[in-house]
Design brief:
Layout lengths: L1 H47 L5 E2 L4 E2 L4
Antiparallel strand pairs: 1-2
Length: about 60
């Protein structure tokens, strides 16, 4: 009888651990995707939408005295 209780307890522990890992992994996956998207948006912003005060023909910045 004791081996059946041990077996049932082992199955219950495995199910609980599986559910916890599934929940934690889903949260971590969403966080990683969010960080990748934020880094991509920052890269696009700083490299393509940067506003520079300068001459567009010579590509030299103007300095105000």
């Amino acid at each position: 009888m004791e081996s059946y209780l041990y077996f049932a307890f082992s199955i219950a522990v495995i199910v609980v651990i599986f559910l916890l890992i599934k929940k934690i992994a889903g949260c971590i996956l969403k966080s990683v995707i969010l960080l990748i998207v934020a880094a991509l948006l920052a890269y696009v912003y700083f490299n393509y939408f940067k506003v520079v005060d300068g001459d567009s023909e010579t590509n030299v910045e103007q300095i105000d005295n």
